[in-house]
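worker-3 :: picked Ribonuclease 3
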Amino acid sequence: MDLEFTELRRRVLKLSGLQLRRTDLLAEAFTQSSWRNENPEYTRDYQRLEFLGDAVIDLVVARELYESLPGGSEGDLTQERATHVKGENLARMGRELGLGEFVRLGKGEEQSGGAARGGLLEDLFEALVGAIFLEHGYTVVADFIRRILLGVTDDDLLTTDNPKGKLQELCHRRNFTQPSYEWEVSGPDHERCYRARVIVDGVVRGEGEAGSKRLAEARAAARALDLLGD
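worker-3 :: tokens ->
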């Protein structure tokens, strides 16, 4: 088993431009209680991250629907949210990412084909979301969920949200210096990862990662907006 989760990191990077560095969180996110019970020296399984990821998904989807359906009633929003976060949808995301390939299961669970169960794949997707939230924060995990679960594209994130434009407006209103960006690039040519930093009044206010420079800067600007309280 790939305990460094190299292939999982590659898939997430290719799909969302997001780099996962916290191997400890990934190990926890992909350990089922059946494996932990057989390995008592290991004290954690994915249940806590699953709990956290479930709550984060609910919040991100609810906020997206609230903003995209201004005329929707509470009942309409509740029904629409349930459609997006139902178990089979999350399991499908887990299956498309191949999350079952990385999970550590107890011998009995593994022999019975547990890695392919829909319920397990749903749990793993939620645990992965929880791990991303702890490593990268709300803005980044919200982009991941909106892209993976809600089908929001890079163009949507750049044009509809327009965090760079909003940050410029905020700086103008508050008499801050206009934001400037620094960035660095890593990874091979076919899997570039851009890391951007946005600087306001001489201080780094936000950082973002993505598969393109524009999206990395947009994510950095979005984090700066969260920090500055737009």
